[in-house]
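2024-03-11 09:14:02 DEBUG pipeline.ingest accepted 1 chain
2024-03-11 09:14:02 DEBUG pipeline.ingest length=264
2024-03-11 09:14:03 DEBUG pipeline.predict start
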Amino acid sequence: MRNVVSDAPRTTLTAFYWAFILYLLLPLTLMMAMSFKDANFVAFPIGDWTFDWYVKVMQDKQFLEACLYSIMIAAAATLAATTLGTWIAMLIVADGIRGRTIIFALACLPAVVPGMISAISLRIFISTIDMPTGTAAIILGHTVHAVPFVVVMALTRLRSMPGNLVDAARDLGADNIVAFFRVTLPYLGPALFGGMIFCVLLSIDDFVRTFFLGGYRPTLPMLIFAKVQGGMSPEINAMATIVLVVTAAVGLYAEFITRRARTR
């Protein structure tokens, strides 16, 4: 009797868990299924299955240009966010620094501010400094949003770093700069690599900040949004499926790199 009572909460939690998984995966599964439909509209039944929509997407000049533009913005934002995030993390763990908690809170603030509020504030900021909307403004917005994730991952790695490594480098004659590039940066490598991948994914998927800061050249989320305004079609589902599969694969790889870094 006691075992039955103790197993009841576990069974309930398991049921809720699988219900939640179904809630998350069912819409994605339906979206992917519709991308193979041999018709110009999204509805059941599917009937015949085809890869024609994927062929059409890969031949779509707008889609390819939007992908390249999004990748370019993501690369620039990731480079800037990684540089700033690493510097902030090093500042937080440095000896003799006061207000570490305040610095960490301010660095992580963009991650907890709602996207709409962040986008509006960034739009006001670039208007104040007379920065035009477009590529530079988008990179700025994506960088601000990505910095906290680099800070957290770099801090986690730095706090597990043995202090005698840097001390040994200094005893051998290395100054602070040489010790950073020869000892600290290689040790941070796996964490920074995982953080950079997450920054790329955040940038490519960022719609709200891009909408407020973008110009006339669309990124990938903006292009999909514009096509949705004309009505759903299997072509849009194929675009979304390609983005989903690529981002999921890259995200899982980043998680693998992060986990491996934590175990070292």
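2024-03-11 09:14:41 DEBUG pipeline.report DSSP finds eleven helices and no strands in the chain.
2024-03-11 09:14:41 DEBUG pipeline.predict end
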